[in-house]
Model the fold of this input.
Amino acid sequence: VLPIWNVWGRGPFNPARARLHTGPQQEHKTFYEFRTYSIHPHQNAAFLKLTNEKIHLRTAHSELIGYWTVEYGGLNQVFHIWKYDSYSQRAAVRAALAQDPTWISDYISKALPMLTSQDNEVTYLVPWSRLHKPPKEGVYELASYQMRPGGPAVWGSAFQAAICARDAPGYGKLLGAFHSEFGALNQVHALWWYESADHRAEVRHKAHNDARVVAAVRNSVTHLDTQRNRLMHPCLFSPMN
Done:
């Protein structure tokens, strides 16, 4: 079986066989669940207050990576990332939460009526990326790319080159690059840190005038269907703050 993740800068692959494989083969079991909640506009402040007071009931069961409010790219939304070592661990966590009377009475029974929708996605870090902590307080951007069918065997190298062309010169701080496993397939995400929204605007302008970045992005967008960006502020209780 072709090791598809080799296309993320790990050696040659056979294009004829690569077309038969559209999903990643993971070397590690650890995965990250992305969750997006949309909140009733008049309940936004109440939801954030409740979550700030009761999040310890949830983090007692599994590791929270970050929790943010969306400023641009989605109104009245929160986005959070949870880490799991395996699918069996996540199943055990969900089962424990369902049997936790304090979690149910003090949080979830109050929080759910405040929401209009919930969405989740299972992702893995791509092999060339590691999860980093931000250097200090700032703002975060989640850039999500819907790539064309074919998987990283087709577009992985181009995506890596485009992201690294921005990260290496310091046009933002890359905190992690992720590939979807469940949810929309052929989707990749880059989580970026900036000192502020104005700092992001400044470095983006510089990147647009960097010939190396422009060339890498032009090569990558030939494999791109759509892109979505969200600018986010960390909640007070977020480990990434």
Observations:
- The CA atoms of residues 53 and 237 lie 9 Å apart.
- The chain has one domain: 31-234.
- The domain at 31-234 is CATH 3.30.70.100 (Alpha-Beta Plaits).
